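User: I'm writing a short report section on ligand binding and want a predicted complex to refer to. Could you take this sequence and magnesium ion and write out the structure as tokens? A short remark afterwards would be nice.
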Amino acid sequence: MFRLKNQKSDDCKGDNEVLLSVKGLRKRFGSLNVIDDIDFDLKLGELLCIVGPSGCGKTTILRAIAGLEKPSGGRICLEGKTIEGPGPDRGMVFQDPALFPWRNSLKNVEFGLEIKGMGREEKERIARSSMDLVGLEDFSHSYPYQLSGGMQQRVGLARALANDPEMLLMDEPFGALDAQTRNSMQDELLRIWGETKKTVMFVTHSVDEAIYLGDRILVLSARPASIREEIKVQIERPRDRTGEQFNDLRKEVLGLL
Amino acid sequence: MTYEKDAEKEKRFHLLVKIISFLAFLLIWHLLVTGAESSPFLMQYRIHEIPAPFEAVQALVGNFLGRGIGSTYERGIGLNSLMSFIRVLVGFAIACVLGIPIGLAMGYLKYGVDAGGTIVEILRPIPPLAWIPIAIMIFRENAPLFIVFLGCFFPIVLNTTAGVKCVDMKLMEAAKTLGASSRHLVSKVVMPWALPSVVTGMRIGLGIGWMSVVAAEMVGVKRGLGIGAFIWRVYTSGNIDLVVAGMIMIGFIGWLMNFSIEFTERKLLKWRRTIGG
Ligand SMILES: Nc1ncnc2c1ncn2[C@@H]1O[C@H](COP(=O)(O)OP(=O)(O)OP(=O)(O)O)[C@@H](O)[C@H]1O
Ligand SMILES: [Mg+2]
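Assistant: Sure. The structure tokens for the complex follow:
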């Protein structure tokens, strides 16, 4: 492994396979200790799932990486640089999709490109291909209120993807969907992940979802969150949700929660 | 929510109710003033001198261009209303140009409300009409313009501020993760979010502005043009028909202004689902 050159800070050194590294992350809200010393790395192109009990601090970790929450301690480095605020290099897909209600789907997806000052044609081309990617090409002109929950989530994903971020942060994006829609969204995510080769950090409270999606799973403890276990998922994709390996792993993870 | 096939029927019903209630209003008015002629009680309050709807409209039409009636009113309701209308538009435009940025600043900047809130809250309860003496002193013939400005200004500022204050932080965060700087946050999140509220402020402001122009002209414009001044002149010369004709004109223009704002609002805010569609 060789060290990256031109680094601002020694703490942020890492090998070139590591995209994101979280070191000694702590977060308190007043007297409430939410995250207690978390360390982990995220490799380029990896799909990492985080599971943990409700209220343990999963969203908080993701928000800290997104730059929306300032850590109380520790540091988060993306490509060797300390994160100091939100930026287009980290695309976030929110649990409530947080679409702009006054923009139709296409305009929502164009948002980040508009901010970059991209020309109209290029902007539209990229936004359209992003809409294609999530399978919503026919709903470009629909406003968020005219879309189903799953479709809104897909617009949210397309919006993050259009910006071509280094990594995607996804906070229980399928939490509010019914079982079938959820399963098909998971397959779509895997397909998109395969096509775009994005690094993904996926928060969920569903053990099945984590096992189905992840290359790796971080199991968090109850608040204050710390990493209870790190599990490599070595089941071949496409994964059989009812297979033996799947069931064994499910048992293992459930036992940790 | 209604089903497709009922929607058409319901639409016709809405129109029907509107027409019937309006006709009923005219009928009551007509009966009241014509009936007053045989009622000593109502006559004692000079109700019978008020023109019936038809007479009022006749006076309105007859005087509109200022032809055919005595020399005092040679300039007609039309021109007088136009002058008031222009005053309102100009005052309203100035109020928007100043009020919207001030409202945005008060809502968005950390110390915005601290800086502007108290001043606005103290000035706001002073009715625009209480400013008339000062306005006449300073602005003379243009006093009504200033009064209109005041009437429009505060609702615009307050509603803009309120709209900005309630911006959805989730959307702000989403925008930030997409790379928005604070300039972008203002122009692409805060402003569109606050727009419905700003338009509401504009509508309230325009309404108050239109009401205050009439009063301001009654006091501030003695011989010049203006529907308020017109009404006062025809009243002092005892022509109640024209007083009511002028009032109808005021109501009609006010209704038209409100209608055009509502129309723009609907065009602009298609993305909002509202109660009653
Ligand atoms: N801005 C805040 N101020 C105070 N406390 C907060 C804030 N944000 C989160 N918390 C607290 O931090 C804890 C963790 O919250 P977080 O949203 O990260 O949980 P989570 O693991 O995502 O839960 P869930 O699975 O229910 O989404 C909670 O107890 C919450 O009350
Ligand atoms: Mg959460």
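A remark for your report: Confidence is low (pLDDT under 50) at residues 1-10 of chain A. Residues 179-196 of chain A form the longest helix (18 residues).
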